[in-house]
Amino acid sequence: MPADDIRALFSRAMSDMYRSEVPQYGLLCELVARVNAQAMERDPALAARLQGERQLERLDVERHGAIRVGTAQELATLRRLFAVMGMQPVGYYDLSPAGIPVHSTAFRPVDEAALARNPFRVFTSLLRLELLADAGLRDEAARILAKRRIFTPRCLALIEQAEQAGGLDEAQAREFVAQALETFRWHSEATVDLPTYQRLRGAHALVADIVCFKGPHINHLTPRTLDIDAAQQAMRQAGLAAKEVVEGPPRRDVPILLRQTSFLALEESIRFTGGPGAGGTHTARFGEIEQRGCALTRKGRALYDTLLAEAQARAATGSPLAEAMAEGFRRFPDDAATLQREGLAFFRYAVDADRLRRAPPPPGADLAALVAGGWLQPQPITYEDFLPVSAAGIFRSNLGAEVRERFDQQGNQVAFESALGTAVIDEIALYETAQAASLAACMRVLHQGAA
Ligand code: OOG
Ligand code: NI
User: Fold this and answer.
1) 55 lines ligand 1 (CB under 6 A)
2) ipTM surpassing 0.95, yes or no?
3) 3-294+384-420 topology per CATH
4) Mean per-residue pLDDT, 320-327
5) Which PANTHER family match (predicted)?
C-alpha cells in the first residue's frame, strides 16, 4: 500500500477515535465545514483558486494533531513510525522563550502530490527535563519515563517489517494503523500516584502531562477553515470557549502563514495508582482551528517576525495586542502582486497558454517582465508548517495561564536532532525548491513556444 494511502487511513482513524473521545471535536468539524461552505459561496474566486492549487479536495480531510513525548528513544521511534506513512520531520521549533520546556518538529508529507493526497501533520514535542531547576524532580521524571513502553510490540514489528521490505501490504498496513492508534489513545489511569503527579505538576503543568501517563495521548486535532474569524464566532455561539486572541498575523486580504485559535482543555477524571480514593483530574485535551495562507520567503518571514516582536513589545506596555498587531502589520504589503514583486512570499508559476499563443515573450525577458506581460501567472504556495510564537500561545491556552517562567537556556536543535536520529528538514528550503521547480518547468514551456 502506498505510504500516502496509509497516512490517509491513519488520519481518518485518528479523527474517528478523537471524535468518539472528545464530542466537541465532532461539533467543531461540523461548524468548520459549514463556515467553509459559506466562505466559498460568498467568494467563488476563492473556491476557484483553491481548486487550481489542489487545495479543495483535501480541505475536508485536512487535519493536524499534536503529541508530546518524554525521551529521545520515544522520539526516535516516532520518526520511524511516521516514516511508514510518508511523514518526515520538518522544521525545528524552540518553545523555551515562552516558558514551555519542550522543543518540537512537525512530521508531515513533503512533496506536492503527497500533500494534495492527504496533508496530515503531527506537531511533536520532546520534553526538555534539563530546563527544570529541581534536580531531584528531574531524576524522578526520568525514572518514571524510562519504565514505560508507548508502542505495542506488534507496532514495532510492523515498523521493522516496513523498513526491511520497503513498505507494507494492505493487510499489514491496516494492522499497522490499528496498532499505531494505541500509542495515541487517551488513558484515564495515570502511571503514578497522586502526590507524584502533584509534585511534577508543581514543577510545570506540561511535565505532569508528559510524564504521568502511559503514552503521548493526541491532545488535539485541528480542521482547517477558510475564514477563522467567522469560525471563531461560530465556536462561541456553539458554546465552545474559544480563546481571546487568534494567534498569528491579523486578518488580511491575502492571508499569510497561519492563523489559529483554540478552546480550553477539558477537565478529565483520572485514576491515580495507590488504590481506591486516588481520584483526581487533569486537563490535556482541547480543540483548535487553523486558517492557512501563503508561505513567506526568508525576507518575508523576517518582516513577519519583526512586526510580531514589535507588537508584542507594545502589548507588554499596556496596549491591546490585537490593536498593536493590526497597526504594525500595515507595513506588510497585502496584495499578491507586491508580495511577489518584493520577494516576500513564495509562488508557484504557471504559463498562460493563451498569452503565449498570441505572442512569445521577448528574448531575455526576466521574471518581472514575464509576470507583468502576462506570460507567467503566480499562485501563492500554501504554508504547510507551524509558528513557534503561535504554538506557544496554543500550549498556554491548554495549560492554564499560570505558565510564565523563563528558562536560562536557548533552543538546542543539535540535541533535538541527535534525539530524533536525523536532521530536520528546513521548511523554507522546501518552498524554495517548489517555487524553483515550477519556474524551471515554465521556462521549458516558454522556450519550446518560442522555438
Ligand atoms: C502543541 C501546541 C502547538 C499548534 O498548532 O501550533 C500546536 C501542544 O499543545 O502539544 O498544536
Ligand atoms: Ni495545533
Assistant:
1) no
2) yes
3) 2,3-Dihydroxybiphenyl 1,2-Dioxygenase; domain 1 (3.10.180)
4) 92
5) 2-OXOADIPATE DIOXYGENASE_DECARBOXYLASE (PTHR39479:SF2), PTHR39479
